[in-house]
């Protein structure tokens, strides 16, 4: 049965492309899904380095569950709780679960601040938490300011169904992408000139994709700025438990505690168990708001994306074990630091530098020297070569709205040691191969200069040859640019 030409059967939200699936960020995932690396079954496949997932410490909760089978209703030791867990639970969440989460948030922040379990709202992952806050705080067309680069899926999580907007706050590598007061004010001024209503500021701390934490001064600037302009401040702190090096993580909750004159009703925190505990499949996202109305409204909205009571029941028991949680956080930080040192050290030995970071599950890798052309298109050409030739799915900076071509986020915690070594070996081989090509080109140019020979080239190519001592390789965009 046919339909009339031009008839629109689906909604605007369903067809507007707001999910962002067509971006290079998700295209890299598709390349991996179509040709996934496996050490024996597909050793030439694509290695997934575009997924910020923590697989380095899975053995610790697994060992805990073996020792505590009573925590699960799916075991003989725990099945007696089946009826209580299987029956309907309201959207406040199980009290032991909320208490356990509050204690974890305190430990992630070094015990410097306390959290009220009654202010915790659960959601289906941080994705659901971000969208719930967008619905609570913004009308369609309202905007939040966000420092660039930022997590690509914020465009989906925060904007797609709520129809809110994200406007960039310009940050650049001149100060390691640190947020400045002038950049904040400039972004707000630009929005007002464009008649775009701004409702708040959205940040990630620790940063995704930078892998850095905000210092106290920057957080105080944010709190002062949002209070002065009566804007909401959403702090995505889902990577709080992944900080593995100095300086120590500072939460906006600590800043708020030390500034009693600030209005707490404007501050909201997003948290999750996906990154710290490496449990993204459990779909546990959290909102912690200091605003009573936001807590009440978000709790009602959480009806659409609750965490299953079976999951809450298991995690409540695990998080109630203080010794386990403390030991886990310490050991997980040690493993993340060790993996970061291994990976960043391997990159450094082939001349690739990364932004110095102290948290997260990734590094911000600078491949600007390898661009043929310093533009977004030049970056994407390099990215395609890395994905399809080197067979590594890394994420280009342009997908994070970075305005400087050549930066890439590369995840290092979602694979075992052997796969990490394979990835580093592939990078070394590619860089070595391109270095050989570059040296051959330099040798050819020196020979031409010394002998006075001149190739018969089109005029434009003669001009290019005169401008630079190196010719680009015709086979790959991964060629060091002259600077």
Number of strands: 13
User: CATH topology of the largest domain, which one?
Assistant: Aspartate Aminotransferase, domain 2
Low-pLDDT stretches: 455-483
Under CATH at level 1, the class of the largest domain stands as Alpha Beta
The termini sit apart by 62 Å
Based on helices, strands and strand pairing, what is the structural class? alpha/beta
Classified in CATH, the superfamily of the largest domain is Type I PLP-dependent aspartate aminotransferase-like (Major domain)
pLDDT averaged residue by residue:
88
Q: What summary fits the major beta sheet?
A: 7 strands, mixed
- Globally, the shape reads globular
* Second-tier CATH architecture of the largest domain: 3-Layer(aba) Sandwich
> Domains counted in the coordinates: how many?
2
**Radius of gyration, in angstroms, nearest whole number:** 25 Å
Helix content: 40-55%
Query: What strand order characterises the main sheet?
Result: 2-8-7-6-5-3-4
Strand content: 5-15%
Instruction: Provide the succession of SSEs.
Output: HHEHHHEHEHEHEHEHEEHHHEEHEEEHH
Number of helices: 16
Textual characterization of the structure:
The protein has 16 helices and 13 strands. The chain is an alpha/beta fold and 483 residues long. The chain folds into two domains: 12-48 and 367-467, Aspartate Aminotransferase, domain 1 (Alpha-Beta Complex); 59-325, 3-Layer(aba) Sandwich (Aspartate Aminotransferase, domain 2), CATH 3.40.640. Strand 3, helix 7 and strand 4 form a beta-alpha-beta unit. The relative contact order is 0.14. Residues 455-483 have low confidence and may be disordered.
């Amino acid at each position: 049965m046919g339909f009339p030409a031009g008839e629109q059967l689906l909604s605007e939200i369903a067809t507007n492309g707001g999910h962002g699936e067509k971006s290079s960020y998700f295209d890299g995932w598709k390349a991996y899904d179509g040709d996934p690396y496996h050490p024996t079954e597909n050793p030439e496949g694509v290695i997934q380095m575009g997924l910020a997932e923590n697989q380095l410490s899975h053995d610790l909760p697994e060992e805990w569950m073996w020792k505590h089978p009573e925590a699960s209703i799916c075991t003989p030791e725990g099945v007696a709780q089946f009826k209580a867990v299987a029956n309907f639970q309201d959207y406040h969440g199980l009290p032991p679960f909320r208490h356990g989460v509050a204690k974890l948030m305190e430990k992630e922040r070094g015990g410097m601040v306390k959290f009220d379990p009654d202010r915790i709202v659960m959601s289906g992952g941080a994705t659901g938490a971000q969208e719930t806050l967008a619905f609570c705080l913004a009308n369609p067309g309202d905007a939040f300011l966000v420092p660039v680069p930022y997590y690509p899926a914020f465009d989906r999580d925060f904007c797609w169904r709520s129809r809110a907007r994200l406007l960039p706050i310009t940050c650049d590598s001149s100060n390691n992408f640190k947020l400045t007061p002038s950049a904040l004010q400039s972004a707000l001024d630009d929005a007002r000139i464009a008649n775009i209503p701004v409702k708040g500021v959205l940040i990630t701390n620790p940063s995704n994709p930078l892998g850095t934490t905000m210092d106290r001064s920057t957080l105080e600037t944010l709190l002062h700025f949002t209070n002065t302009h009566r804007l909401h401040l959403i702090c995505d702190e889902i990577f709080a438990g992944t900080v593995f090096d100095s300086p120590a993580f500072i939460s906006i909750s600590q800043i708020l505690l030390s500034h009693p004159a600030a209005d707490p009703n404007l501050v909201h925190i997003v948290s999750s168990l996906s990154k710290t505990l490496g449990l993204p499949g459990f779909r546990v996202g959290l909102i912690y708001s200091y605003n009573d109305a936001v807590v009440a409204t978000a709790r009602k909205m959480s009806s659409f994306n609750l965490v299953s009571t079976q999951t809450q029941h298991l995690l409540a028991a695990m998080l109630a074990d203080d010794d386990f949680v403390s030991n886990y956080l310490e050991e997980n930080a040690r493993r993340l630091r060790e993996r970061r040192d291994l990976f960043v050290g391997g990159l450094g030995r082939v001349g690739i530098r990364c932004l110095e970071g102290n948290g997260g599950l990734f590094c911000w890798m600078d491949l600007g020297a390898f661009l043929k052309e310093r533009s977004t298109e030049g970056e994407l050409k390099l990215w395609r070569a890395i994905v399809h030739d080197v067979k590594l799915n890394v994420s280009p900076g342009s997908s994070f709205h970075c305005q400087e071509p050549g930066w890439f986020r590369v995840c290092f915690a979602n694979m075992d040691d052997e796969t990490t070594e394979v990835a580093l070996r592939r990078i070394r081989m590619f860089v070595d191969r391109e270095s050989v090509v570059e040296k051959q080109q330099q040798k050819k140019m020196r020979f031409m200069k010394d002998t006075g020979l001149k190739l018969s080239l089109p005029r434009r190519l003669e001009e290019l040859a005169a401008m630079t001592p190196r010719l680009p390789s015709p086979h790959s965009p991964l060629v060091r640019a002259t600077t």
